[in-house]
Amino acid sequence: MKSSDVILQTATKVVFFLIFLFAIHIFFAGHYTPGGGFVGGLLTASAIVLLLLAFDLKTVSRALPFNYTIMIAIGLLLALGTASASILFDVPFFTHAYDYFDLPLFGETSLHSAMLFDLGVYLVVVGATMNIILTIGSDD
Amino acid sequence: MTSVLLLFAPVAAALLIPMLANRVRGIHTGWFVLAVPVLLFIYYLGFLPQVKDGGVHIGELSWIPSYGISLTSYIDGLSLLFSLLITGIGALVVLYSIFYLDKTKERLGNFYVYLLMFMTAMLGVVQSDNMIALYGFWELTSISSFLLIGYWYTRDRSRFGALKSMMITVFGGLMMLGGFVLLYLMGGTFSVRELISMAPELAEHSLFTWALILILLGAFTKSAQFPFYIWLPDAMEAPTPVSAYLHSATMVKAGLYLVARFTPIFAASEVWVWLVTSIGVLTLFWGSFFAVKQTDLKGILAFSTVSQLGLIMSMLGAAAAAFHVEGAAETMFKYAGFAAIFHLVNHAAFKGSLFMIAGIVDHETGTRDIRKLGGLMALMPVTFTIALIGSLSMAGLPPFGGFLSKELFLTGMLSLGELDLFAPASWGTVLLVAAWIASVFTFIYSFYFVFRTFTGKHKPDLLPKSAHEAPAGMLVSPAVLGLIVVAIFFVPNLVGDWIVKPAVAAVQPFMYGSPSDVDVHVAAWHGHITPELMMTIGIVIAGLALFSLLPKWQGLYRVFPEQLTLNKLYDSTMIFAESGMNRLSRSYMDGLIRSYLIYMFLGIVIIGLGSLIAKDALAVSFEGTAPIGPVEVGLLLVLVAATATTLVARKRLTAIISLGAVGYTVALLFVVFKAPDLALTQLVIETVSVALFLLAFYHLPKMSRHDEKRKFRIGNAIIAASVGLLMSLLAMSSVSQRALPSISEFYKETVYSEAGGGNIVNVILVDYRGFDTFFEIAVLSIAAIGIIAMIRLRLTRKGDGHEKQ
């Protein structure tokens, strides 16, 4: 899919970062306001899809050299690891922990182990979506 | 607890074996393995004084306490006897295998790992008091037997035999598990001891007979009773040490152990008594009759094992019969239980040695075919002597242990003749006659085995190797067993007091309070002519006569039609099951995704509508629903229009775009209903899937659904409409009648205080219902990998034509 739409390509170069930043924002904000790992992951994937539409597969895979299959594995391990870490503290499987910390720059921030689990979800969603799209898209 | 952990000592040792087998090449791996059974044997010997006086040792390790499942090592007379057999014969077999298996040619690591695995499994079977643990170990013996039979897995016969034994014994094991579950339902515990203590109440229960039959199926398949014995002859493809160990001395006796262990519970049932006795005698007769037909040395021994197992089984049945006799401990009914255990010990000794002899003959001459053998007496004198001891003991002649147990067996059968409790009195007589004839055939095959191999004419040109005496190390184990066979004849009461009586007391607690109550004194000569002695003389005369005439009547076996054998039945069942199942699954798995979707949707509709109607749950009420405003109506109109366009569109691009419109409209509906999370997700999902469609657009086939037959389209329309109807009815009904208060209040209260979050939707995803999310992302990953596999592997397979295999 070779595209040479200059307007689309130029716009994409800016929009991609907007979408990506929004995805990151939505991922972190998820615990208190709308968003979360699932939507964040999908948004990130859609940003990459936009790149794919504007440019072509080769260019995008050179710009973002990720192995999405390994990304899935990392995400699953992270989710499982967060869930099972609770066993080490002698509480039931999947018990989350959270507390409030005073971080520089951010001020008082709540850190939640659910965030790590959500990061796993995020990685799996990005990895799986991109895997599916790239596999189908590159098959000819 | 030590005794529980020691159950796993062999498996723990097995972990080291592969390392040793690879590192230390100079020394045969067997020497390291040998230490395990020897040390365990010494450990179990230490229990003898305690158990002799009726004591028991209980070690317990909690496993799943909430279900009442624990690993228990319960050592009483019966389990100690078996543990000694397992470790004692195990040590001899390992020693023998060191000389039998060549350290340069064989994969010793595999062999000893399987063997040690079996040892743990078998010890677990006989010591577990908890039925679930017992079942687990039981299946582990089947698995290790499967691996050992298939040890030479490049041979077709080995794989066939391994599979056959696995199929039959695992089938029995599952039946047995069913029986255990029924017992649990009746008694509320998995502990055999506790079940025994409530035996009288259990006997009244309506499920009692079912449990009994299921457990007997497990015992009969494992102990190769008629008609399940067919796996044992095929199991002879295993290396000979394995045959000597698993398939004559220990594993096939697990069924006997099970029957003995459960006798205190089931003896109250007449079904148990007659089923165990009759099947036992039938197997005894059948096995001994067909043993004479065999031409393979190990084949003869396999059928002989089947037959001897039947003998012990029938004695256990008679032992249960004693439950129904008033004052059985004072009459001749007391002999059956003793005979069973005593013969079990004898059989392990003489049959173990005979198997090792068969292995030696095979090893030194290169064949086990009795038609090619003969005249080996002069060449292998030591082997011959040991073989003679084993065979004569098996035939029931003095001065060997087999004579004593055969006499006791005949006493037990005579006592059955006097039992007229549940069946016509003549039944006992029939069993007695069958047992006598079987004993004659036992005599014949014992002589057949030893004299056809070692006397007669030597045929060196038929043998693959020139025969010579075996190395000394190989002869040690059979010689030790041979010595035991002779020793038992001279000191039977020593063996009786120390080993047999504690076991008998465990089998027949309804008769004996402690082992010292077992009032059986074994003697070779009772001072007068007994009926048993008369019968034995009759057996010897008839046996000798028939043996000398053997060539005249052995052709009789060829008269039986091959088509009607049980083996044929097994083969055709397997073939039928395989091809039949194949045809069945091919008939509906046609490879078209739309067919599968039809099955799924039909299933959903039938189950959903069915339960809605069956539970009388249909209700439609608009009470408490949000008002429908112009915005909603407008959105719904767009939704319907877009859906309709998707259906009737003639070009795929139109269909894709209108499907996208459906999704975006739904997202807008979410916005109207103030569900930002859902709207956001729906929007992105829709964007990504439209992009995906566009990417895959190039690969999609031409739209052809408008060419489909009208009938097909109407069918699909009906299914689609009913799914829609079902979903609407479900939604309406669940809104109209709330059985439970809404959970959203709970979420509102706890989302900040308990979960430390503000967005309920996301907290549900990552915390409240984290498990769901975890499995969802797992499914997502599997889907991604599946798509990679489908598309990438299809490409590679085109090239190398792997498909046609």
Structure in a nutshell:
The complex is a heterodimer of chains A (140) and B (805). Chain A has 140 residues and is mostly helical.
Keywords:
heterodimer; A: 140 residues; mainly alpha; 69% helix; flat; B: 805 residues; 2 strands; disordered C terminus; sodium transport (chain B); membrane (chain B)
Lay out the secondary structure.
The complex is a heterodimer of chains A (140) and B (805).
Chain A: H1 6-29, H2 37-54, H3 57-63, H4 68-88, E1 98-103, E2 107-112, H5 113-138
Antiparallel strand pairs in A: 1-2
Chain B: H1 2-7, H2 9-23, H3 30-45, H4 48-52, E1 57-64, E2 69-75, H5 77-100, H6 108-127, H7 131-149, H8 156-187, H9 192-197, H10 199-203, H11 208-222, H12 231-234, H13 240-249, H14 254-266, H15 270-291, H16 297-321, H17 335-365, H18 381-395, H19 401-417, H20 425-454, H21 472-490, H22 492-507, H23 531-548, H24 550-553, H25 566-588, H26 593-614, H27 630-648, H28 652-672, H29 676-696, H30 710-736, H31 744-753, H32 760-768, H33 770-800
Antiparallel strand pairs in B: 1-2
How does this model look, in words?
The complex is a heterodimer of chains A (140) and B (805). Helices cover 69% and strands 9% of the residues of chain A. Chain A has helices spanning 6-29, 37-54, 57-63, 68-88, 113-138, and strands at residues 98-103, 107-112. Chain A is flat. Chain A is built from 5 helices and 2 strands; from the N terminus they run H-H-H-H-E-E-H. Chain A is mainly α and 140 residues long. Chain B has helices at 2-7, 9-23, 30-45, 48-52, 77-100, 108-127, 131-149, 156-187, 192-197, 199-203, 208-222, 231-234, 240-249, 254-266, 270-291, 297-321, 335-365, 381-395, 401-417, 425-454, 472-490, 492-507, 531-548, 550-553, 566-588, 593-614, 630-648, 652-672, 676-696, 710-736, 744-753, 760-768, 770-800, and strands at residues 57-64, 69-75. Among the domains of chain B are: 270-492, no CATH class; 744-805, no CATH class. In chain B, strand 1 (57-64) and strand 2 form a beta hairpin. With 805 residues, chain B is mostly helical. Classes of the chains: A mainly alpha (140), B mainly alpha (805). Chains A and B meet through helix 2, helix 4 and helix 5 of A and helix 29, helix 32 and helix 33 of B. Chain B: It holds the Pfam family Proton_antipo_M. Chain B: Residues 713-792 form the MrpA C-terminal/MbhE domain. Chain B: Keywords: Antiport, Cell membrane, Hydrogen ion transport, Ion transport, Membrane, Sodium, Sodium transport, Transmembrane, Transmembrane helix, Transport.
